[in-house]
Design brief:
single chain; about 450 residues; alpha/beta; Aspartate Aminotransferase, domain 1; Aspartate Aminotransferase, domain 2; 2 domains; two-stranded parallel sheet; 19 helices; about 10% strand; binds pyridoxal-5'-phosphate; EC 2.6.1.1; PyrdxlP-dep_Trfase_small; PyrdxlP-dep_Trfase_major
Length: about 450
């Protein structure tokens, strides 16, 4: 019998899903025969279907599957959170290819374990990249960094640390933007933190609901943890301005709130690494104690290599460097118990690029290629919709930044786009701009125009 779990997640192997050889098929038959003969002599199952309910399918991965199975040659994938080139193909950054070749040809590279904290050349470079080489946190030795399983692993490690070591009783609530990257909810729930939301997106302006955000942060208890997207907010593509970041920081200082930055798109948003790190650097300069979950999936195109880092910055003070050593030692224990030590490959590639000025400059060029193409698609889409006179306003397509755009299309419109036009996007109307290209832009604009008219 095929289990319902297996139907939900075909990528997770179950014993009945894919026998790898005829001998395993024979073994399966033998084992089912022997359990039939033995009847109830074995221990009864504890983990029955009634005890373990089937989990709902991950919406994003379900969307990807539906797209793959759609035979239409017109289909457009705007769900995927990964960069695609103008031919809708994954793009290996030229600088990554170069670093990869160099690693392959380096006879000193082996397959030994990394240390618990990861590749030291990588973590020190990741640190400088996000807080700046001249950061007071580095100068005063009050920052520690561990290599993690990409950004997801960094968010998890940070959440776990806060839930175990935050000295307040009860533990502070973590406030997430509404909406936020869906996985934030699961990760922070799994580590036992209490979650709350702060308003972020204004459906009316399709921009930042700054007043709503500020009011919610003011009302949040002193000492709360506030999850902030450093740049290119997922899913809205809406970021605070530098002036607004300053006001957020001032309020959070007054309320003694703890910033937890998630940075998954540095350099990918504006094309400028320093500009995209501005908010984090500002908060560090303001003397906040904070943490940062950093992903290299998007900006290096190292999605599958799971390359990331978690940084903790202690507040300035006489005890700061002792505190950070204690924190680093506890983080190392958490890391050891979960993954023992992180994977080497992606970190080697990133480290090679980050530590070599020539390769670094080539990387910046690659980042400009990706962000530039996305900006071009934003301009192209807005232009086409405005030219057609599609009902509504479309300026938000170019004011939002980064990989995603919150189009304002509703669930019904998204459904028609999928059923009638073979255009795939998440139910909340988010599109990945990277899925657009010069071959499908006209088609997508035509589809949006038609659906908006049909439903208005
Ligand atoms: C806001 C945000 N945080 C973290 C991540 C983590 O990504 P990864 O684990 O692939 O680095 C993502 C990826 O989509 C994201 O959008």
């Amino acid at each position: 019998m095929t289990s319902s779990r297996q139907l939900q997640n075909p990528s997770i192997s179950t014993s009945s899903s894919s026998p790898s050889s005829s001998s395993s098929t024979a073994r399966d038959r033998l084992s089912s025969l022997s359990s039939h003969i033995m009847g109830s002599n074995g221990n009864p199952s504890v983990f029955t279907p009634a005890a373990v309910a089937a989990a709902p399918e991950d919406p994003l991965f379900g969307l990807m599957k539906a797209y793959r199975e759609d035979p239409s040659d017109k289909k457009v994938d705007l769900g995927i959170g990964a960069y695609r080139d103008n031919n809708a193909k994954p793009w290996i950054l030229p600088v990554v290819k170069k670093a990869d070749d160099a690693i392959h040809n380096d006879p000193s590279v082996n397959h030994e374990y990394l240390s618990i904290g990861g590749l030291a050349d990588f973590t020190s470079a990741a640190q400088k990249l996000i807080v700046g080489a001249d950061s007071p946190a580095i100068r005063e030795k009050r920052i520690c960094t561990l290599q993690t399983i990409s950004g997801t692993g960094a968010v998890h490690l940070g959440g776990l640390f806060l839930s175990k070591f935050h000295p307040a009783q009860p533990k502070p609530t973590i406030y997430l933007s509404n909406p936020t990257w869906a996985n934030h909810n699961q990760i922070f729930t799994n580590v036992g933190l209490t979650l709350a939301k702060y308003p972020y997106f204004s459906a009316k302006t399709k921009g930042l609901d700054f007043d709503g955000m500020i009011a919610a942060l003011r009302a949040a208890p002193a000492g709360s943890i506030i999850l902030l997207h450093a740049c290119a907010h997922n899913p809205t593509g809406v970021d605070p301005s530098q002036e607004q970041w300053k006001q957020i920081a001032a309020l959070m200082r007054e309320r003694r709130q703890f910033p937890f930055f998630d940075t998954a798109y540095q350099g990918f948003a504006s094309g400028d690494l320093v500009r995209d790190a501005w908010a984090i650097r500002y908060f560090v300069e303001q003397g906040f104690e904070l943490c940062v979950a950093q992903s290299f999936a998007k900006n290096f195109g190292l999605y599958g290599e799971r390359t990331g880092a978690f940084h903790f910055v202690s507040a300035p003070g006489a005890d700061a460097s002792t505190a950070i050593q204690h924190i680093a030692s506890q983080l190392a224990i958490l890391q050891r118990s979960e993954i023992s030590n992180p994977p080497a490959y992606g970190a080697r590639i990133a480290s090679k690029v980050l530590n070599d000025p020539v390769l670094f400059a080539e990387w910046e060029e690659d980042l400009r290629t990706m962000s530039g193409r996305i900006q071009e698609m934003r301009r192209g889409l807005r232009e086409r919709l405005e030219k057609r006179g599609t009902p509504g306003t479309w300026d938000h397509i170019t004011t939002q930044i980064g990989m995603f755009s919150f189009t304002g299309l509703n669930e019904n419109q998204v459904k028609i786009l999928r059923d009638k036009w073979h255009v795939y996007m998440t139910k909340n109307g988010r599109i990945s701009m990277a899925g657009l290209n010069t071959h499908n832009l006209d088609y997508f604009a035509e589809a949006v125009d038609s659906v908006v008219r049909e439903t208005s």
